[in-house]
Amino acid sequence: MNPGDAYLNDLKLFTIGKNFWQASLLDQVSSLTMQEALYKPSPERHGIWQLVRHISYWKYWSLTYLNENKKLNAKEDNWAPLPEVQTEETWQEEITNLRKLNEDCISAAEKLGDELLTSDDEKVIYFRQLLYHDSYHTGQIGFLRAIQGLKPVE
Question: Which residues of 100-110 are buried (b: 16+ CB within 10 A; e: fewer)?
Fold first, then answer.
């Protein structure tokens, strides 16, 4: 297996598949209700819905930088507020958006191939490091699920 294929495989395992460490990002969030996604252990902490928006933002940011060579304003949009109206429907739209952005990332990784791991281009490095960013926040989502008493995702 060449390096680009190995990375692509890990990207899929950690975002949509099964890996050795934890349930994938989309498996962790897909079955949650709006109320479970809104749960916060304290007012100053982030809930799952906020984490999903944050993960989606950085996927969008990295794809924009990679494809258009344009850096978006991360200071303003990094932790965007939740939608004004929070319903099961808007929560499902959030998951759909995350799923679409993730598919776009998988497609971009397929196009980059070995360049994903061999390039020193900042755009590629940012994009490559999304996997680590996603994994970190997926762990947080798993913890927020656990402290709500939700069953682990198998």
Answer: ebbeebeebbe
3-state secondary structure 36-73: HHHCCCCCCCCCHHHHHHHHHHHHHHHHHHHHHCCCCC
- Report pTM: 0.94
The pLDDT value recorded for residue 31 is 94
Neighbouring residues of 35: CB distance < 8 A, sequence distance ≥ 6: none
- Spatial distance between the Cα atoms of 72 and 9, rounded to a whole number of angstroms: 28
Q: Check whether 3 has a pLDDT greater than 80.
A: no
The DSSP secondary-structure symbol of 15 reads H
pLDDT digits (tens, 9 = 90+) for 6-59: 888 889 988 988 878 888 999 999 999 999 999 999 999 999 999 999 999 999
What are 36's two structure tokens? 């479970």
**Beta-carbon neighbour count of residue 72 at 10 Å?**
16
**Whole-angstrom Cα distance, residue 120 to residue 37?**
37
What one-letter code names the amino acid at 76?
E
Domains and CATH numbers, the chain: 3-147 (1.20.120.450)
- Give me the sign of the Cα torsion angle 77, 83, 88, 92: negative
Indicate the DSSP class of residue 154. -
